Amino acid sequence: MPSAKLNPYEMNFHHGTSLLHGWLPVTIEIVAIVLLLIAIVRLTRRWWLIRIPIAVVLGVAGAIGAWLYTNDQGLASDPAPVLLWICVGAMVAALVIVVIGWPGARWWQRVAAVLALPFAVASTGVVLNQWVGYYPTVESAWSALTAGPLPHQTTVDALAGMRGTEPKTGVVVPVDIPDDASGFNHRTEYVYLPPAWFAGKTAPSLPVVMMIGGEFNTPGDWLRSGQIMPDIDKFTAANNGQAPILVFVDSSGSFNNDTECVNGPRGNAADHLTKDVVPYVESKFNASSDPAHWAVIGWSMGGTCAVDLTVMHPELFHTFVDIAGDAGPDSGTKAQTIQRLYGGSTEQWEHFDPVTVMDKHGPYTGVAGLFDDLTAPQRDGKHGMPKGFKMPKVSEDQIGKGGQDAFEASSEVGAAEKLCATGKKVGIDCTIHTTQGGHTWQFASAAFSSSLAWVTARVGLPVPAST
């Protein structure tokens, strides 16, 4: 049985120096501004009439270029805060000042200019991180960058020694799932086994939830950025150790490869999830093969995947939770999406478009889904909620940057309503819950925790009476 001693990451899981608010982000931004001011304060006429305008023009061009690229690539459904583009412009301007301001500068001006550049880069990173909530703390960022262990992580070899024991918490094991069926080049994936999995001489046939992250991702993001393990532990402690097996999959193959969980030029991600992952988990961990005992939970791009996988493969999955996903696989405009995701094939676009799939499939049996969507402040957030579902508590961090106007420009607005309306026509029991918030990992974490009891009941396990 593993030692009860926590690894360094686990010790700081809920605590640490915040990267989302507080003194550190503000300090980085202030230092960047001060250094930049020291670097540009000069008294020559040529400096202010020629060189500073050059830096400003190039900085603005850099900000506009980054904005155009983000929009062209369809990299975000929730528009970035204006401050991000200001920081990008300042970062480019800082680089220009280092180059064109070097001749004739005093030593302290050169030092300030050189130091201003990394702080400008750091400021951009801080604002970007505040926008998406990817690294909540310095400790979580360090753990990810150094490939530190995940909470409760152990090895597959250690599982045999835990058989028949009564561990207080479940464990996370890294797995290398064969890609024989898909040929999809993927990274290490992770499986969470609840305490109940270790009861008895052989593993019980537990239900499974496939966990899919956002567009820019690693398979461990739900645990590092989402920080969902404390809530899972709390749930199993109140539920006699029972919970579904959770499989944290790799839907992209690399951090910036946006597959949208389809088969195409970016890889056969759909085949990997359905033809590699599902049979592996069933055989390796004795998981149930009944589709009524399988669910998919996804955030952002993963939310789109959750719906798509379920409506395309009701023989594998009967339950989905779509957290702030889009109306379908998306990589820009429809024309761009067809070209980028499907190599120009309109037939493939239709094959993976969830509305088209549902219309062609006809009536479904036993399929249900939950949409946890974002809402602007003035929108009504009260829709019927299924039994076992609680409204997430939304903190200041979850509101994010960008505000109401940014949200209302988001491409995900109306997606849940459209998908749920189509689903109900073909027998899918779906519910929409809307919450005011920002498109951040903190929102995703709250939505997961709120839906856990409902999903657990859906896949056939009892849930604590208090949920």
Automatic annotation (TrEMBL):
| InterPro entries from the UniProt entry | AB_hydrolase_fold (IPR029058), Esterase-like (IPR000801), Mycobacterial_A85_antigen (IPR050583)
**Pfam families, A to Z:** Esterase
Keywords for the protein's UniProt record, in alphabetical order: Membrane, Transmembrane, Transmembrane helix
Keyword check for Transmembrane helix: yes
> Single GO molecular-function term?
acyltransferase activity, transferring groups other than amino-acyl groups
Q: Where are the transmembrane segments?
A: 20-41, 48-70, 82-104, 111-132
- SUPFAM superfamilies from the entry? alpha/beta-Hydrolases
Q: Does the keyword Membrane apply?
A: yes
Which protein, by its recorded name, is this?
A: Esterase
Protein's organism:
Nocardia macrotermitis
